Amino acid sequence: MKALSKKRRHPLAAVALLLFGLLVTGSLYTAAGSVSEAKAAETTSASAADVEEGQKLFVANCATCHGMNAEGSEEGPSLIGVGAAAVDFQVGTGRMPMQMQGPQAQVKPVQFDEDQISQMSAYVASLGAGPAIPDEEYLDTTKGDAAHGGTVFRVNCAMCHNAAAAGGALTRGKFAPTLAGVSEKHIYEAMATGPQNMPVFNDSNITPDEKRDVVTFLKTIEANGSAGGAALGSLGPVAEGLFVWTAGLGIIIAFTIWLTSRPS
Amino acid sequence: MASPNEYTPSTATGRIANFVDSRVGASGMVKEFGRKIFPDHWSFMFGEVALYTFVLLLLSGTFLTFFFDPSMTHVTYNGSYVPLKGIGMSTAMASTLDISFDVRGGLFMRQVHHWSALLFVASLSVHMLRVFFTGAFRRPRELNWVVGGVLLIMGLAAGFTGYSLPDDLLSGNGLRIIDGVMKALPIVGTYLSMFFFGGEFPGLHVIPRLYSLHIMIVPAVIILLLVIHLFMVVTHKHTQYPGPGRTNDNVVGFPVGPVYAAKAGGFFFIVFGIVAFISALFQINPVWNYGPYDPSPVSAGTQPDWYIGFVDGALRLMPGYLGNFSLEWVIPFPWGDNTLILSVLLPALVPAGALFAVMFAWPWIERWITKDNREHHLLDRPRNAPFRTAVGAAGVVFYCVMWAAASSDLIATHFHISLNDVTYWLRTLFFLGPIFAFWLTRRICLSLQRKDREIVLHGREAGIIQMSPEGGFSEKHEEVDVYKRYLLTNFNDNKYIPAQPDAAGHVSGSEKRRAAISKFFFEDRVAPVTPAELEAAHAAHGHHEVEGEKQDSIEK
Q1: What is the ipTM of this complex?
Q2: Which entry of A86, B271, B342, B415 is 20 to 30 Å from B68 by CA?
Q3: Could you say which DSSP state residue B252 is in?
Q4: Using CB atoms, which residue from A166, A170, A252 is nearest to B419?
Q5: Core vs surface per residue B391-414: b (16+ CB within 10 A) or e
Q6: What's the CA gap between B199 and B368, in Å, rounded?
Q7: Yes or no, beta carbons of B270 and A255 under 8 Å apart
Q8: What is the DSSP letter of B187?
Q9: How high is the mean pLDDT of chain A?
């Protein structure tokens, strides 16, 4: 301490103090600003071999559009910093590799096995920090609150995905798909990475706990089934109106014809 | 009245019946009502369907009032539906959830009420379409047509007020649109909205107010109009389709008692059964999916019930800007600027207003154009009134384009097309669809009439091909029987009537306009076959006919 206090009048002391102050502020800011990135670092358990395998798979299957180093091209966006979760979602649901260019990538049979997907995820995650594949803890629907998740869902998701998660239309051929049958992990990753036209709901916007609540809500209403009979697609009054004009009036007309027919 | 020497019944039933009859004169009513004749045709029964679904609505609605609380007081839901447990909502929403999940049979009754509401308005609409396309609204039934139209509007009012009651997200969005339309009215808009909602939207008053309307005034008006409607049906007697033995002065069919009463009574239970069957198997308006109303979220696929859909569709089709031309006008008044938001007002009020105006006025429009003020108890086959059928088809297409627009998002997702393209196409169809439908329907009607003429004059193709000694082929024609021929040749034929001068010899402007419309409607026309034409056709190729001799013997 004495040595330090002796040097307090050193000409470079002010500079050193300034640098120290900047360093502290900067680290605090970084720590506060990127909770998700911090989480990404802690969950990366991929080996260098995985990254290397992932790179090979990437070059063979993805580089045509995303570029040899995932830097992006006119055909596809850069993948630097999209994180492992984005790859796991896009490839894990079969959306990538894309079958054809269009308003948005469509779901199709998954092209890779679990190991390959995690290798590609590891490779893309190694390019820059981004949302990681969520921990099991955040996918456990027994720990979530369905009612709160429902509120979060109605405020943030229902305007595109429909209140019953049946999906809905967006502009120019884009659409929000139905969420029935989507796995917990993929729902979470979609919120964290914002695939296709979906906005990103980062962890300061919807916290990981709230994301788990949303997943819980979706899984609860899926498991509940539809009270009161067939849901007619959960599409609301249009489906009901169509039903009453076709099946309802159809049955009525059949009976009116029967009632007014005469034995001939 | 009943003096002892008139009639003494011998059985117990007879004594009771006589006791009642001698005090209320029921036999007179039974005589009058029981002998009323109903022609048998399936298309005449939609009015009955509407009546029976209305009875169902009253019954199921009464059940719902036992458990529904229309208050908008804030409560925390604590019922059995887990995904909403602990969520704040209005008492109205909470009691709707209780009816659905905690009242025995409550969900079934809710579904019966809602499905029969949809069926009620649907059968009303089909009934009115039947009346329109067969010309049943003509003298003396014009007023009953108007009463029916008001009934339809009251049906929409009942539906909309009921739809809003659960105070769920979906119905709240619907009310928000009503609020928006009110506020788009210049000057009075905000006041109207404040009066209606009892303050700023959504407030704490609108659900109880709608409830009062829904369970008191609206059904009372419907019942009143229904009584007037049925009274007029009895007074006017029923219309009938044309056919041998059916004239403008008789009604061919079954009397109410006993056959028709039994059929109608049975039909009530059939309708009841169909609605119960649908309600037991198909979910309707799952308010628990939508969640409680909160002005911030709007779910994808938010639509009104089908009968309000055409107004929602018109709103969806309307652009906010046309090129650089804004449809929001600011009108400077001495007290400040007021806005006139045409992009909301035009689609919300004009198409629906135009449809109902033409619908109500049509009996008088048609009378004015055709100068036909006779009583009509015989219906038109739609093909025999090409102008009316074409106008009706144009109206139906106009309505259906708007109706389809209310599901534009679902059309886009289910057919994998762009939502924007759906909107552009529907906008085009909004203007061109009715014109095309008018033209096409008139052509189809005229062609069918020509075919009828052809059948009367030359018989129907028998399917027997004959080879002549020279090697030529010809098909035999089978002459239609006289009953069929009567149907094909006897119809109300409207002709173009040129402008007529009035008593002073002056041709008025309105008369000229009438003549122009008359020319437009009736210039192309297929006249019914005259006896002379039929004679000539027979003389020309009577020997071709397969059963010619038999037909002749029927005629003689």
Answers
A1: 0.88
A2: B271
A3: -
A4: A170
A5: bbbbbbbbbbbbbbbbbbbbbbbe
A6: 48
A7: yes
A8: T
A9: 85
